[in-house]
Design a protein that fits this description.
de novo design (two linked rop proteins); mainly alpha; Transferase(Phosphotransferase), domain 1; two-stranded antiparallel ribbon; 6% strand
Length: 305
Amino acid sequence: MLVSDFGLARRLEQGQSSFAPTANNLAGSLGWRAPECIRGQVKLNEGFDPVLSCCSSGSTASSTGSLVDLTEVDSEGKKIPSSRARLTKAVDLFALGCLYFWVLMNGEHPFGETYNRESNIVKGDAVNMEQLKILGEEGVEAMDLIGQLLSLEPSERPDTHDCLIHPFFWTPAKRLAFLCDASDRFEIMETDPPESTLVMLETDAQAVVGKDWYSRMDKVFTSSLGKYRKYKGHTVRDLLRAMRNKKHHYQDLEPSAQRHFGALPAGFLHYFTSRFPKLFLHVYGVVKESRLRHEPMFDGYFQES
């Protein structure tokens, strides 16, 4: 997809927004504006600086892309708190979430039909989000990213860096490599008692892999797991181990088995994620929210490519 004609575009520095006041109203199309814009919670005055490096009150831009508290000056020249806040790129990120959904769902809007959109946005009622489930595992990841972008609170929306490194945009090769690296790392953790990261991994395991993932797999998979390694069907850790081992021995499989599992990396990854669509994002969340994120083997996954 090519988005063309950037004749009126400009690069936004950190903390900036593309929205600007026109007369007494904010720029932006109805149904695509962030809730804080619709509610009038953003500051509009003659001192608005389109570059957003400063305002007449002297407040500075936010580095997180959230709304920034302003101060106003009373008749004696003293600063007083303002009841409203200044625009930042958080409003653009909200619109971006709407646009992501629109493209993925072929013209559907996350907040419904045109005449209901603004009221649904203010209520935080994204009526069409469940439709993303038809995309399988990628729908789960899309719901995670878009759901964050459509947060009612500007401060809860991810910044542009977090959007760019979100796994929704990863290639199948990168996703498969990540799962294998995670499996390698989980394998060397202490289990008695289990390390805190392993506890995180197995929290809500049934929602991720079911009561027994082993019983949900076909005979082609289970018959080639080997006789000497036992797997616990209720654990995420053992499903990752089985997947990793199968991937490492992929070239040793019969051609018919390779065709059954699918070509590396995309087909093979889909074999597992189509059965367990929550698996990847669950493992990603454990790594991201634990000390593993800062280890060298995972550092590259959280950098912009």
